[in-house]
Write a structure and sequence with these properties.
single chain
Length: about 260
């Protein structure tokens, strides 16, 4: 590990059940189960420990021999963060340990991005960090499925929304077909780093009105007054996999850029 990259743990929540893509962690992408590809990315990033938090023995079996730890967790967790909080308690991670939450449907997450979110947390006294990337297309800005964020001058997140942020009042009064120059339009990338002690706090926080309105869990953190450090990713994150169409797109992406 270099002097500029802290020691960090990668924890991957992998739930067997999925309404949109049954048995999602075990779906083969280029002949390799998706959860295995995600674990390989975490290892490539240089994590000091990689833990896959599973709720089904079939996922655990697929990870045998991959050089990662498998933590069997309850099947009734409401979110991946709750699953990771159970992991943190199981392993007894220190309160200041940096835990990167890498989603189990991100088989092509760039190792540099995984390291960057860990570094963002290590260099800030916020309890949580995440990543973003510039938006260059107006369609993306106005798409409610794309989560936007705005940052303060110190690099911390001010707000996340499915609505366009920031709203360029004068420019958009004329046209919404192009983005005005000079404004920091950012798309949120759903990778997080937490201090292990904050994982327990986070999962105990009551749900909040803005979180429920936007259907964005990270707003719970901001609404309860905790800061989130937000940095730009050094490399693009290919889209995650949620549907059958996403699987086909991933296969096509692999054919163009074998890994």
């Amino acid at each position: 590990m270099s002097a500029t990259t802290p020691h960090f743990i990668v924890a991957i929540p992998a739930r067997y059940g999925s309404t949109r893509l049954p048995a999602k962690p075990l779906r083969a992408i280029g002949g390799i189960p998706m959860v295995v590809r995600v674990a390989q990315r975490a290892l490539m990033a240089g994590a000091s420990q990689v833990v896959v938090a599973v709720d089904d023995q079939r996922i655990a079996d697929a990870l045998q021999g991959q050089g990662v730890d498998v933590c069997m967790t309850r099947s009734d967790h409401a979110s991946g963060s709750d699953r990771l909080a159970e992991c943190a308690a199981h392993y007894g991670w220190g309160a200041d340990a940096i835990v990167v939450n890498l989603q189990g449907d991100e088989p092509f997450a760039p190792p540099a991005g995984i390291r960057e979110v860990a570094r963002a947390l290590a260099e800030d006294d916020a309890p949580m960090a995440t990543l973003a990337t510039p938006i260059t297309d107006a369609y993306e800005l106005f798409d409610p499925n794309v989560v936007k964020l705005v940052r303060a001058a110190n690099g911390r997140a001010l707000y996340f929304s499915r609505s366009p942020l920031p709203w360029a009042r004068d420019a958009f009064a004329t046209s919404k077909d192009a983005l005005p120059a000079g404004l920091p339009f950012l798309r949120h990338i759903g990778i997080y780093a937490y201090r292990a002690g904050f994982l327990q706090t986070y999962t105990s926080l009551p749900r909040t009105p803005l979180e429920q309105a936007e259907s964005l869990e990270q707003l719970r953190v901001l609404e309860h007054g905790y800061p989130i450090a937000a940095r730009l990713t050094p490399e693009p994150f290919p889209p995650g996999i949620d549907t059958e169409d996403d699987v086909h797109r991933a296969e096509a992406w692999l054919n163009q850029r074998p890994l």
